[in-house]
Structures are given as C-alpha cells and as structure tokens.
Amino acid sequence: MFSKHFFHFSINNFKNVEKISKTAILRFYSTAKWSYVHGASALPLMYKTTGQILEESVDKYGDRTAFIFPKQDVRKNYREFYSDVKSLARGLLALGLRTGDRVGMWGPNTYEWVVAQFASSLAGLIFVTVNPAYEQDELAYALHKVGVRCLIASNSYRNRSYYELLTGLLPGLPKGDKNELNFGKGVWTYDEISNGDDSKLDKKIRELNTFVQADDPANILFTSGTTGRPKGATLSHFNIVNNAYFIGKRMNYDKQNSVINAQNWREWPEATTTVICCPPPLYHCFGCIIGSLASVLHGATCVFPSTAFDAKMSLSSIHDEKCNSLYGTPTMFVDMLSNSNFDKYDYTSLRTGIMAGATCPIELCMDVIHKMHMKNFTLLYGTTENSPGTFQTTMLCELDDRVSTVGKVHDHVEAKIIDEHDHMLPIETTGELCIRGHCVMLNYWNDERQTNEVIGRDGWYKTGDLASIDANGRLKIVGRRKDLIIRGGENIYPAEIEQFLHTHPKVCDVQVIGVPDKRLGEEVCAWIRLKEGETCGEQEIRDYCMGKITYFKIPRYIVFKHQSDFPVTVTGKIQKYKMREVAVKELNLSI
Prior knowledge:
By secondary structure, the chain is α/β, with parallel strands linked by helices. Its EC number is 6.2.1.2.
C-alpha cells in the first residue's frame, strides 16, 4: 500500500456575462439593493499556525481517537498522532531542510499523508499536495513550478509505479528491479526518516513553533486543472486555520451558547464525539482542510475509508465507526446511494455532513435526507484559492435553501457580484462572484501575472463563477463564466439545464456543454448517464423538456454515456473542456 519512500533532491536535478448599460445600472442602483454581503461576526479570527492548533488539540483531546484508516488498519488517538507527527518533523529537519522549503506529498489517502501534513507545519516547511494521478510530465511541471526540495511518495497508485516514474525524471536515483527498490544517495524509507529521536531537534521544533507566523505560507495546493495547466494556490496558516475553524462552527462541531446550536444538539448528546467519514482525496482542500485540519481543530475523529474513493468502503466505514457526519461531492453521494451494497449497512448514526463541488439536485437532496438520515447536511461553496469555503448552508435551513442556494457567506468574508466592467450589480442579478477576506490565497506560487489577473489591488478575488445573491444574502451558483453557452445571442447557463434534466425519472447524472455551430455560434449538448437498468432515447428527453424550459435551452445534441466516459479530475470535478473535445469529434462538428 504505502511503501513509505522518501525522495530528497534539488529541483536543479530536473532535465460572457449579460451586458447592462451604465445608464441602466446607475438607474437601478438608486432603487435596488446591491449584490454585496459581509459575514459580520462576534467570533474573532484565529491568529495561529497549523502546528499550534495541533498542540492545543492534543492537550484538550489527548486520548480521543483522531484518525482512522480502515484500509491500513490504523487507529490513532491525538497523543499517538502527535508523537508520529513530531517524529517525522525531526526527520525532515535532520535532512537539512530549512524554514520555507517545499515538501511535496505524492500519494493517495493514507495515514502517512496526514502525518506529513502536520509534520511539515511543525518543521516550518511549506506542504505541497501533489495529485496522485499525475503522470510524468504533470509531475515534473508541478515539482519544478514550486521548487519542491523533498518529496514523500507512495510506492504506487492504481497499478502505476511512482518510483519508476521518478527515475525517468531524476537520472541520479538508484535503479533496480521495479518490484525491489534500491536505496542510496537521496532516497530513504519513511521509517528511516521518522524514527529519529534527537532532543536537539525537539528544541528546534519548539523554536519554530514561535518563529513561524500565521501569515506565512503553509500549503500549496494545485488547482484541479479543469481548464488547463494547474496553478499552485499558496495558502497561509491564517487562511486555512480560519477556514477550518468557521466551517466547523457552521457545522456545530464544537457547541456555542446559541439558540440554533441548542436546538440542534438536543438530538446530539453531550457525550457524542463528532465522527466524520471523509471519502474526498487528501490532495484536495476538501480532504486536507475541511477534512483533516478542521477535524483536528474541533477535536473530532476523522475516518478516511479508502486510498481512493470507494462507495462500498465509505458505506461500511459509516456503519462500522458509527459516523455522524459524511463528506463528499454530489457524484460521490450518487455512487454511494446507487451502490448494490447500500441496503446492507446501517446509517442511523448519521446526522449531518457537507456536500460540495457541484450543485445538488433536489432528488439527491431528498435521498440523502431520507435514505442516509442526514437531515442536517449542509451545502458548501468554495474554491481552492479561497482556502476553500466561503458560503455554506446551515444545519437547520429549509430544504429549498439547500437545493436552490449554497447558503450564506462565512464569518468575516465579503462577497459581491459584478458585471464585465467590474461594476457591482443589484440583487437577483447574475454576474461574476468576487470574494475578499481572510480566506483569499496569498498568490499563485511563482506566477505574478496570473495572480494579478484574479486578485485586484483592493484584495477582491475574481472566482470566475457566475452567481447571484438574493435579498436574504443567499448565494445561487449559475455556473462557470467559461462554461456559459451563447446560442444566437442568448446566454444559457448549463447548471440550469442540468438541474432540470435531473428531475427526469430515468436520469442519474447529466452534464451540459456548448458545442460549435456555424449558424448560431454554439448549440447545447447534454451528456446523460441513465439510472441502472433504464433505457431512454433522445426524443424522450426532448419531449420531457417541451413546455417546461425555454425552447433554445432544449439540447440540440443528446448523448448517453457511461460513468467512465465523463472526464474528471482526481477530486471528481468534471472537465468540461475535455467533454467539448470529445463531443466535437464524435458529433463531427467543425470548430
């Protein structure tokens, strides 16, 4: 599983929104509320590092179970986890790594992953998460881009030898039989590095814990690459600690004296520890910030069911560990609910959870509530560049809020909707969502141009997402600005059509894209995955649309696909640009 190999090297070893006239805008501003919200809060921001958070939690929750990895048969309480973290931190410092050096983690969800995450912080290093699905070229790009000095890697992932890929990049690495690795200059086993016991290094760790500041970089997470080459979003300790803190608060993971919490916790006894089932990948902020970091900060137990998402393993982990909170993307929830083993397990321990990464169709929402007992689950919106969460529903909000919006803005965060001229728009008007506050990343590592394209001098981050804010401050995501379909001058938002088609009784999943058309510029194309055992034709889908959605939104092209046909990132995000490439070729369309 996790061969626990270390690679220490120098990087030198590498060979269109709807247009509104200014006059109309000014006239409307005089009579309507602007699309601006601010998460005013009496709760102060936390000025602490990840390492300081861990030490505080160890003092508070020492004997409580911190992490469970069923696939590895690993179960560690907070004291045991901290001991492992300190051991690895000593080993990293013993390698000669210095404050601010980048440590890469290349592997699937394993216990060693979360140990490395917190050990890097204790050692004053910047932790770089590397997509476990990267091939050689992608790996070289990522490591070179951020100047990784030390790489911690699994032996393999999905039958791919990591070491074999690395020897192609680093000719100096010792070579041998691919099933029997040689260790020499620059290569160590994980155990060799993490078993050191040097009291001088303990003193160094204590010094670093006060020397490293909350504003210093903590993590570099690569964007999912849904539109091309990934960028390294640099997040500070201040970014990720506060994001983890306020997400946990929204989830009521540690109770405060408020009416809402009191109402919710009547059904959640005082002695109950939050036990989170977290199938999302650790490489992504959903796994390592909303998952492991928020769990440690709030004294929860976090269960990572499998190395990569496995619906059955997730369901069995909920059952075995009596999890009361479940995380996942809508696709993950669909796969769990449709798994043939679903009825074999007990989900009555579940109460809440987080669904993020895409919109939640009402049918899925109802299934999650009634079949998985998650009546208090929440929807969360965010981006990697925002550490990640910015908007979230509450545990007690109405059902309609959870299917039509992603809730209200997080504490101490500002949000606004703008047009193509950067002018703020009135409420209920679709435009680009912008975010400002403690959550906004420091920069894209070593990429000033792209950083300046998305973060203005006033601190506003342009998300690239089309959205609207209603009179109650709730956010509705319409889709990506780059995914907007313009058909004969009409703006069409794919998410709107996707939400509608999800109501068809035979449809399991659907993605809508724009494809080229000589006359209209673009036409609507729907990729549909049917529920197991169902059959359906194109005309049946079109007939279902007639009279229910505007004629120009009805898909011109309808193709039925299997789950494996949808191109996705390792985090499960749909890569629509790849869908377009496939559709153009399969439909024989000219660009």
